[in-house]
Structures are given as structure tokens and as C-alpha cells.
Specification:
The chain has about 450 residues and is α/β, with parallel strands linked by helices. Helix content is about 35%, strand content about 15%.
Length: about 450
């Protein structure tokens, strides 16, 4: 497994490095090579790496409209507005919020209600209370505004003392095909950030409904027995006409891991908590568990199992999100300080000593697996194992079942979404062509 460590010396001028701490061979997963062992060093800082600085500085900023500048003058705190559905909130959403936060000091996020989404887009997978909680758990979010309007107005920015609105460079329209951000664009109070390629809510729904089931033998698996031929135009894969709708593949980079990292190491005397898991389709149940884990210490290290562990215990259709996607989703949570990438299933004494773990936590489910192996045995022997009750009933399987049981609704929603996107793209192309012709006529 690989440990990601990012050290920030100051909030203004950070020194960013990606380091790998060598571990005993007993902790290394299959496929770990000597080349992986040698991966260390201090890469040259790029312009995009500088995004870490404003994010780190903003996290410590006073939540006021003004702050003292180095010269003793009052400096205005830049308040940024974002809004959206944030359905099945994933690392793509988190990355847009990270970029928005880097454009200012204080991030306010408006989340649409179920009724607004149903009217303009179709039924959400997660209800509004679940979506509100997920957005609040994102490390870059300072404030959440519930029941935000689907069309962003200058009035909503002024009401929340926000200077401008930030949205990704994809298309968002109302039920009537109107640009949801046309009002703030016209007022000059709109900025764009880059959309994260390779992931979307449509993409994740498509993965769950289009995965092969040929390896399944357990009828209890919610992904088994799906009639894929009946899925119709849910997701059109790489042949999608719309660049925003369709199943794609996320390509992880070390830079993205650096941007998502928490930028701090444990302080002397910190009580270190370790909590391993698959963390697939990172959801409110996971957030509740991590919030409960945080109560047991000061510094939370989360172990993220490799894909092979999920496949072994749950079948070849799992995990829905690959290791790197799950790592980014976990890193975006404000309760998490560090992540062990590809964590071993069985916790060993070497792991506990290496990370100086004071307590290992696990949910209320039986710690022993179906084969009689207890992966927490070393922690139990040391007397540092704690089972916690998050109070949540949401699981990854429940989310998958919601989608499967409402398959037709989601098919219709995605077909409608694709049609709106294509209509918007066509209209923009026609405007561009008309402008080009007018320019050509004027110059002749």
C-alpha cells in the first residue's frame, strides 16, 4: 500500500511533496514493486499545485467579510457561491468545490430540493436531507444553503453576501432548456471551473445498471438478475453524442491526490484513529461512520481496500468505483486526515506500529468474515479495538437497490438530460456559425 503525505510549511507559500514511507513486506499488497518502493522526491511545483495554498489558507480564515492584511489594512473576504443537485455526491463534485474555494476565501454552497430537481431534471437517487449532509461533510465547504433555486439569480448571491458564482464548464438547463446561470452571467458575476472528466452521477448510475453479471452465483447480490437489454438509452458509453452524458473512465494522477490531501501530519500527542473499509459509492452512511470515529481521537487515518478485496467478498461487479476514485471520495471528507491506499485486509502489528495507532474502529457489523477470519484480531489483542454505532441505515447495497427498483425513472431522466444537452449544443453551434458568417460578411 502507498501512503500519501503532503506537508505544508506555511499557508502562504507551501512546500508540497509526495512521499512514500517504506513499509515491511508483510504490509505490501500484491503487485507492489521495487519501482513503487523508490517513488519519492520533491516534484517541481506547477501552477496547478499552487491551488493548495489558497485552499489551505481559506480553511484557517476568519469567517467574516473583512480581515487584516499584512499592512494593517482591512482586506475583504471573498465569498464564493456554488449550487447544484449534488446527487450521489462524488469526487467530481468535490473537485469543483475545491476549485471554487481556491477562487476566494469562503465557500457557500446552495443545494436544490427534491422538488426542484424532479421538476427540472428528474428524480434524484438521494433525498435532499442526505444530499445536504453530504455537501456539509466536504472539506472545502464553509456553509450550506438548503432549497436553493434551480436558476441562480443575482438576488441569491446578494442575499448570501457572495461576490460571484462558480460552476463547471458543462451544461445546466431548466426544464424549458434555459441556461440556469444566464442571470449571473449577464451581471458579470459568473466564473467557470474545469469539469472533472470521467465521472458524473449519470456515469455512476450507468455503471450500476450496465455491469456484467456473468460472474455472479449469489442471488442476494442486488446487481444480479438485471435485464440489461431493457435498459435502453440509459447510458451510451463512448458513443454518446453528448460529451456530458455517458459512461467514461476516470484517469487518476498524483497531482489530483496532492490537491485532495489534507496537508497536515499528526501533532505530538494526537490520538490516532484507524478505520479501514471499501468505502464504495461514498455516501451518508460512510460520513456518519467517520463522524462517529472522529469522536474517538484527533487524527483519522482511513484504510481503503484494493478492488480485489471487494471482488473477493462481494463479487466481480464490485466495487462500483475503483480504488483511486474511492480514495479521492474519502479524502474529500472533512473528518479524514490521511488515507492508506490499498490497505491490507488483515490489520497487523506492523501496521499499528507504523502509524502509531491508538484505536481501531469498526461499525456494528460482525468483525469476523464468512470464512471465520477476524481482520481486527491484532487490535483486539492490544485492547484498542472499538465498535461504533453511526446511527445510519444507508449502505452501498441500499443505494444500488434504489436505482434498480426505479430503473425506468432513471432511464427517462437520463434520456431527457441527454436531449436537453444536445439541443443546447446545437443551438450554440448555430449561434457560432451565424456569428462567423456575419464576421466574414463584414470583412468582405
Amino acid at each position: 500500500h502507498v501512503v500519501l503525505s503532503v506537508n505544508t510549511t506555511t499557508a502562504i507559500s507551501p512546500s508540497v511533496s509526495l512521499t512514500h514511507t517504506p513499509l515491511p513486506s508483510s504490509l505490501k499488497p500484491a503487485g507492489f514493486t521495487a519501482a513503487s518502493e523508490r517513488m519519492s522526491g520533491r516534484p517541481k511545483r506547477s501552477a496547478s499545485q499552487k491551488e493548495v495554498a489558497p485552499a489551505a489558507a481559506a480553511a484557517a480564515a476568519s469567517v467574516t467579510r473583512e480581515a487584516s492584511s499584512p499592512r494593517g489594512k482591512k482586506k475583504k473576504i471573498v465569498r464564493v457561491w456554488c449550487d447544484g443537485c449534488y446527487d450521489m455526491m462524488h469526487f467530481g463534485h468535490a473537485n469543483s468545490l475545491r476549485q471554487a474555494k481556491a477562487m476566494g476565501d469562503y465557500l457557500v454552497v446552495g443545494v436544490h430540493s427534491d422538488a426542484e430537481i424532479e421538476k427540472n431534471k428528474g428524480p434524484p437517487v438521494m433525498n435532499q436531507e442526505e444530499r445536504y449532509k453530504m455537501v456539509r461533510a466536504c472539506k472545502w465547504v464553509d456553509e450550506v444553503v438548503e432549497d436553493a433555486p434551480y436558476v441562480t439569480s443575482v438576488e441569491i448571491l446578494d442575499k448570501n453576501n457572495c461576490d460571484f458564482c462558480v460552476h463547471g464548464d458543462d451544461i445546466t438547463t431548466t426544464a424549458d432548456g434555459v441556461d440556469s446561470y444566464h442571470l449571473v452571467k449577464a451581471a458579470g458575476r459568473y466564473k467557470e471551473c474545469k469539469r472533472t472528466q470521467g465521472v458524473s452521477t449519470t456515469d455512476l448510475v450507468g455503471r450500476m445498471l450496465l455491469l456484467s453479471t456473468k460472474h455472479h452465483t449469489d442471488d442476494k447480490d442486488p446487481l444480479a438478475n438485471i435485464d440489461h437489454k431493457a435498459l435502453g438509452d440509459l447510458s451510451t458509453g463512448h458513443t454518446a453524442e453528448s460529451p456530458y452524458t455517458g459512461v467514461t473512465q476516470f484517469l487518476p494522477t498524483s497531482q489530483k491526490l496532492i490537491q485532495f490531501s489534507n496537508c497536515r501530519e499528526p501533532k505530538p500527542g494526537d490520538r490516532i484513529v484507524y478505520m479501514p473499509g471499501a468505502w464504495d459509492l461514498f455516501h451518508v452512511g460512510h460520513v456518519d461512520a467517520l463522524e462517529a470515529a472522529k469522536k474517538h481521537g484527533d487524527y483519522i487515518i482511513v484504510g481503503v481496500y484494493p478492488d480485489s478485496i471487494s471482488q473477493y467478498f462481494k463479487g466481480q461487479n464490485y466495487p462500483v468505483m475503483n480504488l483511486h476514485e474511492r480514495v479521492l471520495s474519502v479524502l474529500a471528507c472533512k473528518y479524514v486526515d490521511e488515507v492508506v491506499i490499498g490497505a491490507p485486509y488483515v490489520i497487523t502489528d506492523e501496521l499499528l506500529d507504523h502509524f502509531k495507532v491508538n484505536v481501531v474502529v469498526h461499525g456494528k457489523t460482525d468483525a469476523a468474515d464468512d470464512h471465520g477470519t477476524n481482520p481486527f484480531a491484532a487490535a483486539i489483542k492490544r485492547g484498542i479495538f472499538q465498535q461504533i454505532d453511526s446511527g445510519s441505515t444507508i449502505t452501498t447495497d441500499i443505494i444500488i437497490k434504489r436505482i434498480i427498483e426505479n430503473r425506468q425513472k432513471f432511464e427517462e431522466r437520463n434520456i431527457k438530460k441527454k436531449a436537453k444537452e444536445l439541443a443546447t449544443i446545437k443551438a450554440q453551434q448555430e449561434r457560432d456559425e451565424a456569428a462567423a458568417k456575419a464576421k466574414e460578411a463584414a470583412s468582405s
